[in-house]
Structures are given as structure tokens and as C-alpha cells.
């Protein structure tokens, strides 16, 4: 007799009403002969406890797992009955469905085979539902609810079948799992089915492990209401609850009434291209359903994670999560935003409390804990931390939504998103690269929504304009101008009047004004000193930013230097010493040390006092030296640094111009790492007249992904960054371009970002008036 046949016979004996222990011993003895010939795993009965009650977080989650099984069985109705009596031993839970049911053979071949799931083979149900469970352990969720399990089931064209499981039997250590018996349950064809159905499954769980409270029931009701997406309601699947301690929860579970958001973005990613397609609508009518497209690389830069076919370090060219569809909805949480909706602010807050958060739906079934509320939920996008780090208001382009202002649904599939896999505990996804790419992809949509809402706020503010406030320097100049004007008026009055008393008063007033003017002049000098300090701090910040970006090469050089020194020492300690090998290692180490030294010298030379002094300079000479100094870091990443520098003479601060160029080069450096094209950066300098004013233009172009129209204004704001780590979290400083913007404003220049027609990436153009050349 074959080994498989022996196991099947043993299985049938174990579930028989009258257990034939003698026959079981005979078959076990025969089976042991196979064990002598082959080494094999054996499963202890205690494994059931680990896979069942020990791996399920709570009793509401356990019921959800069993309801998902009913869904997979093509149930159209599921009824959950919870009866809590004085003692848990007398309390029970029933889960009844009208699904396809199971035959005796299904129970023996499938249900009793732990870890086996026919859903891996038959992935679609007869109702064309994508089955949710494939690990073959969801059935063990019943162990989390109670000690005793009774299942009665009926499949079309099969006899009714029932059996009972005492989970306590599996607490016996040292007993083989296959030797734990079950007992049959006698039943008729109709005493356990739901209504007038002819097929289905009735699960009775008794001797409960946990008592149930009203809050438990509310949480179960909430989670069942969003088990399937409320935005893709399934009309052929209904779940109802009956209980004996909270009548308000009895009845069919329904999805909450949807409140129309202020702004909604719908995003589609096909899983193949580098482009994300999206459309935005809003209650103000500024959005449009017209589909737009934006590149993935322009919204997120995660350099140094992969290597392309040329051996270059690059970020992923596209998300590895596969195709994704998602919708994000924003609510302002203010009474004014609800005008005309019929909802009150308290209703909106309650709605967001229970439904807020961005949830993941796989094959239309929710995946816990993502986006759920309460202690079991997870802010998987880190919206709370993200907004806490930058709590700007709507009027700032870099503002970020709060976690309680947004709800959303992300749709994925088992078949099309193979890299998004279940974790071993069945709750959540494995946190691999595909998961973090999915996270980054959703955050890209969130950023687009935030930019759109900011633009709406600008239009709202345009209807109620407020005068712009001058900066400190402008304010002092304004005061000084007015004071001088008043002083001149007083002098004129003094000459016209003859009264001595009047003249004295005028002279005292004039003296007071002179003192005030001196004070403003002194204050102006202090402001200039502060600006000079700010210039130094901007230069230091720029060095810090560039050091962080180019630190990869510096760290490698230091590591290689240490390695060479170590190898040289080994060669010198040999008997006899290998002098030639030691010299080779020391020569190599010297080249790496030289690189580190050059970067240190480059950094220190940027903040010399003479660079903070306004003077006449040849801009092209300064730029040429800076580019030559920084070029090795670009070459190490296969970036070709080109220059087209025409002669430009200007009276300005050298540090300001160097700070601008370093920040623009650092920005282009990161951009080049996010494209598969040949990596090139071009620095241009030329004289350029604008509006009749002489001046000069600095331009830095690159072959990166470019800057999308949606981002052209926000990129100059402090703290805004598209740089992220491999988990999708922002890790850029968001200061580089804002420093450039600050210098441009201080020196009365202009800035612009366009597309470079030759390199196909971004082109940043900075123009400054040249007072020396002014006509």
C-alpha cells in the first residue's frame, strides 16, 4: 500500500464516529516503515495553536478571517450571531453563510490539510470573485474565538456533512498532529442552512475565550462595513449581525454614507511605464476630470538603489509594485467647507473618525491594518509625522494634509501585484521594495492633491487681497525716506516763519528727526551685518547639503584609504617584507586620501572672508575654478560636467554666486541619477539684458527627468523635496533651491525653470541686474 493511501485511510478513521483504535495502530505501524526509509518532517499538534489563536491579534480579526472564507465560497449572505451568557463556557458565536458549502471529500482533502489551499489553483470563484485566502490557515481563526468548533456544511449534489473540533486536544505536546481525532456530527440537510438555501456552511464556536463588549461589537461592525471598498460596493455580498447585548448593532452592515470631499484625485499606474496618470476634481470647479500624466521620477528621487545596464547607480526607473489604482479625498474639517452639503461639522468629524485614513483593498477586500482607525490601525503613509515636521498652512505651497483630513482607497490584486505579498501573520504586507514603492506612489498622489488645494487657496485669497509686507531692509529704507522728507519740510517751514519760539520748536523737531535718521542708518548697517551672516549661513548650509549628496564618494574614499593602509601593513609584516606590494597599496591609498583632501579644501575655500565682501569680479573665472574643483565627484557617478562660460564682469558677492551654482549643480547631480539617459550637466554663463537693464544669466541644465509644471512653483519653497529613501520617506533637506530663491530676491534677480531642448531635463535660469553695466 502506498504512503499516500495509508495517510488517507488514517485520516478517514480519525474522523469516524466510532474510532477503531486497533486499526489506527496498524496503519501507524505501516506508516512508520516509510519513516525508517526516508527522513521527513513531522508536525507536533501544538503547531495548530501557533498558527491559530497565537497568530490572530484579536477576536474581531478572527471573525473577519472567517467571513472572508464565506466570501471566497461565493456566499451572498453571511449572518453572524453572538450570544454572550453569564459564563464564557455557555457563550457562543455562529457564522452562517449561503455559499457553495463543502462535501465530505472537500473536508478531508482540503479543510483538514493545514497549509493547503485549493485557492492557489482555482483563484476565481464561480461568481468571478478573486479568492482572498491562499495560505490555507485562515480556518484556524476559529481557535482564537473559542475552544469548541462545530461545522455543518452542505454542497450541491452531496450529502450534508458535519464534524466537531476540540482545539484543546492540540495542546498535547509530543503528539503528532495527524493523530488528533475529530468526531462526526449527525445532521439533516436543512436544520443548519441559511433561510431557504440548499447549500452553505454553519460554523458554531462555543466555550468562548473572550467576552464581547459594545466597543468590540462597534469595531467589528466598522471593519465589516469597509471589508469591501465603500467606493466599489458589492451588491451581491451582505453581512448581518445579531447579538443579545447591543440591539443597536443588529441588522445588515452597511457602508457609511459618503460625504463629497473638497478635493478628490484619482490615480492610475499601469505597472509598466514611468508615467502616472491622474485626474482631479474639486467642489470649487477648478479641477477637471481630464486625465493628465506626470512622470514617477519627477515626483520622487531615490538614488543609489539599483544599477542600470551601464553599471551606473540609479534609482528604480519605475515602481516595482505593479499596477495600482487609487483615490484620495481631502476634507478641510471646517463648517464653511460643508455649505450646501446637508452635513454638519460634527457629522463630518464622525465620518472621518470612522472612515478616515488611506486603506488598501486587494481584490476588493480590505487589508488590515492599513488606514484603519483605533489601536489596531496603522498610518502607513506616516501622514501624521509628515505634517508634524512641516505644519505649514494652506497658503504655503509646501503645506501637507493631516491624517484626519483625508480618506482613500488603494486597489491592488494578488495576480497583478505578485511582489506585494502577505506577511506570515496574515495581517498586512511584507515590507519589501514593492511595498515601499507602493507607499511612495500613493504619497506622490497626495503631493499632487496638496499642490492643487494650495492653488485653490491662492484663488480664494485673490478675491480678498492683502497688502504685501516689506522685509526688514525695505522697511528701514522706507522709514528713512519718509523721515528725510519730513526733515526737509521742516527746514522749509523754518525759513518762512519769523517767530523765534516757532523756530526753536522746528529746530528741536528737526534735531529729533536727525537722531531718528541716524538710528535708521545704524539699524541699516546692522541689517547689512545680519544679511552678511545670513550669507555665511547659506554658504555653510549649501556645503552641508552638497556634503550629504557627495558623501557617498567621500565615504568610499575613506574606506578604501583605510583598506590600502591595512594591506600595506600586512605586506610589510611578511617575512621577508613585500616592499613592492606595500608601495602599490600606499600609492593607491594616497590617491583616495587626495580626493578627501581636495573635497575638504573645496569646502573650506567656499567660506573665506573675501568671498563675503562685495567687489568687482570676473564671474566666469570663479565658476570655472569651482566646476573644476567639484568635477571629480560627478565623474565618479559617470556624470559629464560641461561648461559654456562667457566673460562677465560684475560687482557682487562671490559667495552668493558660488552658493547658487553649488546648489543648482547638487540639484542636477541628484536628478541625473534618476534617469537611464546619458548623464550630462551643462553650466552656462552670459551677459543678458532684460527690460532695458544690463545683467547676466546663470543657467544649469541636466539630462534628468525634468520638473513637471505642477511643481515649478513649489520647488523654491523651504523644506519641499522630492528626494526620498528606499521606504518612500522624504530624506532631502528641501533647502537648496530655497537658498537660491532667497539670494535671487535679495539681489533683485529673477528665476525660471524650463525644459532643456537638448539634454531633455530641467534648465534652471537665474538672472541678475549688473549695476556696473547699467545703461
Compact overview of the structure:
The protein is 38% helix and 18% strand.
Record the SSE blueprint:
Layout: H1 3-14, H2 21-37, H3 47-51, H4 59-72, E1 77-83, E2 92-97, H5 104-111, H6 142-145, E3 146-154, E4 161-166, E5 183-184, E6 200-208, H7 214-225, E7 238-243, E8 251-252, E9 263-269, E10 275-282, E11 288-295, H8 296-299, E12 306-307, E13 313-314, E14 324-330, H9 345-355, E15 357-362, E16 365-367, H10 383-389, E17 406-412, H11 433-462, H12 472-496, H13 500-573, H14 579-605, E18 615-618, H15 619-635, E19 640-645, E20 649-652, H16 654-672, E21 680-687, E22 695-702, H17 736-746, E23 750-755, E24 762-769
Helix pairs in contact: 1-2, 4-7, 12-13, 13-14, 13-16, 14-15, 15-16, 16-17
Arrangement of strands in the largest sheet: 5-4-3-6-2-1-7-8
Radius of gyration, in Å, reads: 36 Å
- Percent range for β-strand residues: 15-25%
Could you tell me the number of beta strands?
A: 24
Low-confidence parts? 303-316
Total of DSSP H or I helical runs spanning 4+ residues: 17
Give the integer mean of the pLDDT values: 77
Q: Based on helices, strands and strand pairing, what is the structural class?
A: alpha+beta
User: How far do the termini sit from each other?
Assistant: 106 Å
Largest sheet: number of strands, sense, barrel closure: 8 strands, mixed
**Given the C-alpha coordinates, what overall shape results?**
extended
Amino acid at each position: 500500500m502506498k504512503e499516500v493511501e495509508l495517510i488517507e485511510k488514517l485520516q478517514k478513521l480519525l474522523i469516524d464516529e466510532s474510532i477503531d483504535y486497533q486499526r489506527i495502530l496498524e496503519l501507524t505501524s505501516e506508516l512508520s516503515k516509510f519513516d525508517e526509509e526516508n527522513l521527513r518532517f513531522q508536525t507536533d499538534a501544538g503547531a495548530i495553536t501557533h498558527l491559530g489563536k497565537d497568530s490572530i491579534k484579536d477576536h474581531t480579526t478572527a471573525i473577519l478571517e472567517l467571513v472572508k472564507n464565506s466570501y471566497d465560497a461565493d456566499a451572498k449572505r453571511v449572518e453572524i450571531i453572538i450570544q454572550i451568557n453569564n459564563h464564557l463556557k455557555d457563550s457562543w458565536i455562529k457564522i452562517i453563510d449561503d455559499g457553495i458549502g463543502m462535501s465530505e471529500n472537500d473536508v478531508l482533502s482540503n479543510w483538514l490539510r493545514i497549509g493547503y489551499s485549493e485557492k492557489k489553483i482555482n483563484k476565481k470563484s464561480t461568481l468571478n470573485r478573486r479568492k482572498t485566502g491562499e495560505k490555507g490557515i485562515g480556518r484556524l481563526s476559529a481557535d482564537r474565538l473559542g475552544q469548541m468548533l462545530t461545522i455543518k456544511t452542505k454542497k450541491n449534489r452531496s450529502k450534508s456533512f458535519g464534524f466537531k473540533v476540540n482545539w484543546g486536544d492540540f495542546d498535547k505536546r509530543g503528539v503528532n498532529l495527524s493523530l488528533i481525532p475529530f468526531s462526526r456530527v449527525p445532521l439533516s440537510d436543512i436544520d443548519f442552512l441559511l433561510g431557504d438555501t440548499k447549500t452553505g456552511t454553519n460554523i458554531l464556536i462555543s466555550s468562548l475565550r473572550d467576552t464581547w463588549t459594545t466597543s468590540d461589537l462597534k469595531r467589528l461592525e466598522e471593519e465589516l462595513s469597509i471589508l469591501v471598498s465603500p467606493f466599489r460596493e458589492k451588491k451581491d455580498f451582505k453581512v448581518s449581525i445579531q447579538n443579545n447585548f447591543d440591539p443597536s448593532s443588529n441588522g445588515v452592515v452597511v457602508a457609511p454614507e459618503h460625504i463629497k470631499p473638497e478635493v478628490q484625485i484619482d490615480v492610475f499606474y499601469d505597472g509598466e511605464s514611468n508615467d502616472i496618470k491622474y485626474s482631479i476634481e474639486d467642489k470649487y470647479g477648478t479641477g477637471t476630470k481630464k486625465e493628465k500624466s506626470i512622470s514617477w521620477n519627477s515626483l520622487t528621487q531615490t538614488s543609489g538603489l539599483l544599477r542600470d545596464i551601464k553599471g551606473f547607480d540609479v534609482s528604480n526607473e519605475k515602481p516595482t509594485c505593479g499596477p495600482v489604482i487609487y483615490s484620495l479625498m481631502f476634507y478641510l474639517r471646517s463648517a464653511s467647507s460643508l455649505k450646501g452639503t446637508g452635513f454638519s461639522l460634527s457629522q463630518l468629524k464622525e465620518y472621518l473618525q470612522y472612515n478616515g485614513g488611506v486603506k488598501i483593498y486587494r481584490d476588493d477586500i480590505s487589508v488590515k491594518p492599513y488606514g484603519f482607525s483605533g489601536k489596531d490601525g496603522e498610518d502607513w503613509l506616516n501622514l501624521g509625522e509628515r505634517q508634524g515636521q512641516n505644519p505649514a498652512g494652506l497658503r504655503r505651497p509646501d503645506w501637507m494634509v493631516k491624517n484626519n483630513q483625508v480618506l482613500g482607497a488603494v486597489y491592488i490584486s494578488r495576480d497583478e501585484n505578485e511582489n506585494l505579498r502577505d506577511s506570515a501573520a496574515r495581517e498586512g504586507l511584507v515590507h519589501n521594495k514593492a511595498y515601499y514603492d507602493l507607499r511612495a506612489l500613493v504619497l506622490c498622489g497626495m503631493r499632487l492633491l496638496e499642490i492643487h488645494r494650495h492653488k485653490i487657496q491662492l484663488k480664494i485669497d485673490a478675491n480678498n487681497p492683502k497688502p504685501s509686507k516689506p522685509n526688514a531692509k525695505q522697511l528701514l529704507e522706507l522709514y528713512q525716506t519718509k523721515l528725510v522728507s519730513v526733515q526737509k519740510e521742516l527746514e522749509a517751514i523754518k525759513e518762512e516763519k519769523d517767530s523765534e519760539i516757532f523756530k526753536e520748536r522746528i529746530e528741536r523737531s528737526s534735531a529729533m528727526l536727525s537722531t531718528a535718521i541716524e538710528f535708521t542708518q545704524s539699524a541699516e548697517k546692522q541689517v547689512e551685518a545680519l544679511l552678511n551672516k545670513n550669507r555665511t549661513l547659506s554658504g555653510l548650509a549649501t556645503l552641508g547639503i552638497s556634503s550629504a549628496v557627495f558623501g557617498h564618494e567621500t565615504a568610499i574614499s575613506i574606506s578604501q584609504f583605510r583598506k590600502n593602509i591595512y594591506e600595506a601593513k600586512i605586506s610589510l609584516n611578511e617575512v621577508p617584507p613585500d616592499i613592492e606590494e606595500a608601495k602599490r597599496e600606499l600609492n593607491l591609498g594616497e590617491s583616495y586620501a587626495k580626493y578627501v583632501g581636495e573635497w575638504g579644501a573645496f569646502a573650506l575655500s567656499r567660506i573665506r572672508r573675501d568671498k563675503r565682501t562685495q567687489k568687482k569680479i570676473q564671474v566666469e573665472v570663479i565658476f570655472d575654478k569651482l566646476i573644476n574643483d567639484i568635477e571629480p565627484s560627478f565623474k565618479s557617478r559617470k556624470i559629464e560636467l560641461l561648461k559654456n562660460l562667457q566673460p562677465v564682469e560684475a560687482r557682487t558677492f562671490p559667495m552668493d554666486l558660488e552658493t547658487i551654482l553649488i546648489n543648482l549643480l547638487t540639484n542636477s547631480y541628484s536628478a541625473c541619477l534618476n534617469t537611464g539617459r546619458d548623464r550630462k550637466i551643462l553650466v552656462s554663463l552670459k551677459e543678458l539684458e532684460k527690460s532695458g537693464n544690463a545683467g547676466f544669466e546663470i543657467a544649469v541644465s541636466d539630462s534628468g527627468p525634468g520638473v513637471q509644471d505642477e511643481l515649478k512653483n513649489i520647488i523654491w519653497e523651504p523644506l519641499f523635496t522630492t528626494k526620498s529613501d528606499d521606504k518612500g520617506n522624504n530624506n532631502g533637506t528641501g533647502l537648496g533651491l530655497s537658498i537660491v530663491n532667497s539670494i535671487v530676491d535679495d539681489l533683485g534677480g529673477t528665476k525660471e525653470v524650463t525644459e532643456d531642448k537638448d539634454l531633455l531635463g530641467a534648465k534652471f535660469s537665474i538672472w541678475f541686474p549688473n549695476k556696473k553695466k547699467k545703461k
